[in-house]
Fold this protein.
Amino acid sequence: MGVDIRVENLNAWYGAVHTLHDVNLRIPANHATALIGPSGCGKSTFVRCLNRMHETNPAARAEGKVMMGDVDIFKDATPVEIRRRVGMVFQRPNPFPTMSIYDNVASGLKLNGFRNKRVLDEVVERSLRQAALWDEVKDDLKKKSGASISGGQQQRLCIARALAVDPEVLLMDEPASALDPVSTAKIEDLIFKLKSQYTIVIVTHNMQQAARVAENTGFFLMGKLVEFAATTKIFTNPSDKRTEDYITGRFG
Amino acid sequence: MSPLPVRSRHLERLLELRRSATNHAVTALAVVSTVLVLVPLVAIVGYLIYKGASSLNLAFFTHLPAPVGEKGGGMANAIAGSGLLLGLASLMGIPLGIGAGVYLSEYAHGTWLGSAVRFTADVLNGVPSIVMGIAAYALIVARQQHFSALSGGVALAIMMVPTVTRTTEEMLATVPNPVREAALGLGIPKWRTVLSVSLRTASPGIITGCMLAFARVAGETAPLLFTAFGNQFWNLFNLNQPIAALPLQIYVYAISPYDDWHRLAWAGALVLVVMIMIAVTLVRIFANRGVLKGGH
């Protein structure tokens, strides 16, 4: 099951560039939360802070407090421990090209030393079913490379791979922006189904997408969280003038 | 778009002719270059077969060198010795080279130590091979006061390291960063990510680099002159004793004044080239087994 995420005074830097300014918000458990805003507004940096991926860049730094359930992710755990609890799906599908479909899904467990074949088989099937990919690949699990299937299938494979380690939170950084409309619809259906079991945070440029899948939406602008509210409120009656300008297409 | 005026249609046709002529010229240039590269290779192998094949028989692969004046004899000990020396060199040089390449690509970004290692590897690549022999001589032979197979293996290993290091680094650089992030994002520790994702993704290129380094040192004579030294008899197990090697044996036979030794030298050169070809082919077949092809 998912956990809620409370963010207090989160700041982030790339070198000398201050990319996130005092972000405060509470992301509820087992719901989908969308983050919107123009390119370079800090929404990707924000989600990369949530699984401490931000720190993999030697020039990057983050300060503040992020509580995931009752765990302070910067104080109580190592990045590796946090990333096991927080799955991530990236903008471009990034399956492991030299691994089979099966090994891609099993990788999170296998590469952490888990070897029980019977359990692995079960986890692979369950995860692929959850990602609505099982029926399309079940005959080629070990025959085909993760990079040999279509782009839309690759992205669902990446979702299955993230689900296989049984995370509590799923971060999605523009998961459908490189996909065609049919594949995009499939990913959105998935998010809709998965959000009852996981806390989902999705970064998107597509406002219709945010409106379709997310209960809550946050609007970022120039490294600041301008407004965070129920999605219906953001899109029909935003409190901030800048949010209104953005969603009505007056800038950005 | 509006249709082109009549006048410039003529111009367009001329431009089209020029483009197509350039295209043909560049293609022809590429074909000619390929042929020019292949000619010496085919010529050398062909000449080796012409000069050496007639001296090849079972005895060549099973017998020790015969004393001057006696008929027959073979290079069995040199063939085995080369195998042992190359095995020894690969065992030391490849892991060290891959390790250094991994350090450069995955850990040393922007550090002065990384730049120093990279620079050293490039310089080492250009050092004449005889200098490697002298280095191994100073490190091992001079201290132990005798020539040995081990010192020959070390000399060849030092020669392999820079090639393996730089190709490993370059091949790892071609692994897309999102693939690394995917692994890290699953909570896989960095060392595991490097080992099972980055290195595995880059492995075809790294294997090619190792084969290049292997093929290069397989024919080296100079670094063995004062390390492995050569041996007219069998030495298969004692790394502390001098050992025979094909390039050394070829060298000794080729500068000798005897005709049948010259013929044996040709045969030895042919065997050496064929052995390298077989080794490279076997590694390729073995490495490609069970590898799933990516892309569409």
Remarks:
- DSSP finds ten helices and ten strands in chain A.
